[in-house]
Amino acid sequence: MRFKDDSLALHTDLYQINMAQAYWKDGIHNRKAVFEAFFRKIPFGNGYAIFAGLERIVDYLNHFHFTEEDIAYLRSTGHYSEDFLQYLSEMRFTGTLRSVREGELVFGNEPLIQVETSLAEAQIIETAILNIINYQTLIATKAARIRSVAGDDAALFEFGSRRAHELDASVWGTRAAYIGGFDGTSNVRAGKVFGMPTSGTHAHAMVQAYRDDYTAFKKYAETYKNCIFLVDTYDTLGSGVPNAIKVAKEFGDKINFLGIRLDSGDMAFLSKKAREMLDEAGFTDAKIFASSDLDEYTIFHLKAQGAKIDAWGVGTKLITAFDQPALGAVYKMVSIEDGNGEMQDTIKISSNAEKVTTPGLKKVFRILNKRTNKLEGDYISMQDENPAAEKRLKMFHPVHTFISKYVTNFEAINIHETIYEKGRLVYELPPLDAIKQYARDNLDLLWDEYKRILNPEEYPVDLSQKCWDNKMRNIEEVRQKVIRLEED
Ligand SMILES: Nc1ncnc2c1ncn2[C@@H]1O[C@H](COP(=O)(O)OP(=O)(O)OP(=O)(O)O)[C@@H](O)[C@H]1O
Ligand SMILES: O=P(O)(O)OC[C@H]1O[C@H](OP(=O)(O)OP(=O)(O)O)[C@H](O)[C@@H]1O
Ligand SMILES: O=C(O)c1cccnc1
């Protein structure tokens, strides 16, 4: 490589730096701007998403600066003035960042992250922030769907590194899968970097290397105490399972015969037969692992057929978010300082009502019904509102406003944490297991209707009256401006 790849500051789209130079030339680069990151539609047709990515954002922002090599590269493009490059070389993240926690349940159209910083900084960091949360939130959500089908008793392992979209996606993806409910990963680097549990059996290659099941299983058992034998290389019921049993009997207490892995064929039929054979041989505790192109649908169907599978290894379809490869989160400006130091709301209009942004700095409250201990919905308010103080809260649909309800006896929980304040990290990142537990606990607060994987109910994400009025006022102002322009 021509330049050492030692910083992620250039992990941005060219237009961000181009806009930054234009702002800088005009002297507005330091105006305070507020941007919010959100997605519109929950992926996979799910009823909720699980937020992941904050830890990597913190790592990115902590190290955010353009190195000498970065500046040299930008200089070599010939697009930027020396004064601007000097300004860039001194740029650090100096703003405030609020975010929902990793493991938080999140829904469409609510700000996941709010960035309040200089206009130029806010633009340059957009790409990396979206890149991180779009992928990690997608994988955590896919993992949660798979967990919900597999059930709490099943063991779930992430096996997808070989098929992920390159190296970074494997490790951050498997961490997200862990947050979403997986028990461990086959990726050893993720074990080292994140302290995640690692797990593994052996491949067909080992059976092929020794030419037969029996020798391969024996060699494995001579090396490791804990043994799971892959039984489908040649003939699952004719050779694989009988040889696994034979080796387990021969080694007796010298090994922990944890079970067998099936990786092809009709896994409902094979698992039932294999279970009978293991039980008859006295290995009633031995588990049956399954892998091979699994996802929530195949697991659902295998379970419906009464498959005797205790543990699942899921790779490709999880780590690549196979059926929906993008979350589609966006990052939109909601307010900006004017020339007099006052913050002014901004809005992005669309012909599609659902796509019109909600202007202004906002808060998101999760409304917990204290009687049922279940969530009533989310309530987006303006920054200065406090729904917790209300006795009776009106919640109404932000587009179809006639759909409304009143909630009493509730708790209103602000779901954002302040992560950075004026460039200083003020948040302590929780340990990974606490994040995973947090996601689990949150799912308990959700009614089952929102949790089914097919056609779940739509969780309410509502606007406060003030927020809605503000949005309408902004729409009207833009309309007036456009009409005036048309008249001129
Ligand atoms: N009983 C079953 N019901 C539904 N799906 C199943 C059942 N058994 C296996 N499957 C799934 O069907 C697919 C079978 O894939 P396929 O026929 O391509 O290959 P395979 O049997 O795994 O063999 P190989 O790996 O040798 O190609 C996999 O996604 C597997 O998870
Ligand atoms: O199917 P996935 O959900 O992606 O799960 C991972 C797959 O990776 C391995 O197969 P591979 O054919 O790569 O190698 P092996 O069978 O020889 O181990 C494993 O046996 C699984 O089938
Ligand atoms: O340990 C396993 O069985 C494993 C790991 C990665 C991919 N497939 C299987």
Descriptive account of the structure:
The protein is of the alpha/beta class and 488 residues long. It folds into 2 domains: 12-138 and 323-482, nicotinate phosphoribosyltransferase; 146-318, Alpha-Beta Barrel (TIM Barrel), CATH 3.20.20.70. The protein is 39% helix and 21% strand. It has a 7-stranded antiparallel β-sheet with strand order 13-12-1-5-3-19-20. The longest helix has 25 residues, at 126-150. The chain is globular and about 90 Å long. Nicotinic acid (NIO) is lined by residues 159, 186, 200-201, 261, 291, 313, 315.
**Strand element count:** 21
Number of alpha- plus pi-helical segments: 16
Helical coverage, percent range: 25-40%
By CATH, the topology of the largest domain is: nicotinate phosphoribosyltransferase
CATH top level label of the largest domain: Alpha Beta
> What's the overall average pLDDT, rounded?
96
- When the domains are counted, the total is 2
The distinct bound ligands, ions and cofactors come out as:
adenosine-5'-triphosphate, 1-O-pyrophosphono-5-O-phosphono-alpha-D-ribofuranose, nicotinic acid
Strand content: 15-25%
Rg of Cα set = 27 Å
Give the name of the CATH architecture of the largest domain: Alpha-Beta Barrel
CATH superfamily of the largest domain: nicotinate phosphoribosyltransferase
Strand order of the largest sheet: 13-12-1-5-3-19-20
User: Low-confidence segments, ≥5 residues, pLDDT <50?
Assistant: none
Given helix and strand content, the structural type is: alpha/beta
Q: Largest sheet, described in full?
A: 7 strands, antiparallel
